[in-house]
Amino acid sequence: MTPTSRHHPKCPTCKKPAVKKDNAFFPFCCERCRLIDLGQWLDDRSLDREGKLADRCLLLTFPGRN
């Protein structure tokens, strides 16, 4: 284990060390990684009426349900 990895968790997007101090994007290492993660989440999921996560494809297939 390197000293850097021991003190800083890895960014969930790029796996580089994510420094918490003075980092508005923590747990991500930068804004780019935060936006990539947000975009992936928005592409994969949508909320149904009950506030539960549902596949966007299901909502588009059955438009009367949303």
Write down the overall mean pLDDT: 75
Number of helices: 3
Spatial extent as radius of gyration: 17 Å
Number of strands: 2
How far apart the termini lie comes to: 49 Å
**SSE-based structural type:** mainly alpha
Q: Strand order of the main beta sheet, please?
A: 1-2
Please, could you describe this protein's structure?
The protein is mainly α and 66 residues long. The chain has one domain (3-65). Helices cover 38% and strands 6% of the residues. The protein has helices at residues 3-7, 31-44, 56-61; strands spanning 46-47, 53-54. The protein has a two-stranded antiparallel ribbon. It is elongated, with a radius of gyration of 17 Å. It starts with a helix and ends in a 5-residue tail after the last helix. The mean pLDDT is 75.
Give the SSE map.
Layout: H1 3-7, H2 31-44, E1 46-47, E2 53-54, H3 56-61
Antiparallel strand pairs: 1-2
Brief account:
By secondary structure, the protein is mainly alpha-helical. The chain is built from 3 helices and 2 strands; from the N terminus they run H-H-E-E-H.
Defining traits:
mainly alpha, two-stranded antiparallel sheet, 66 residues
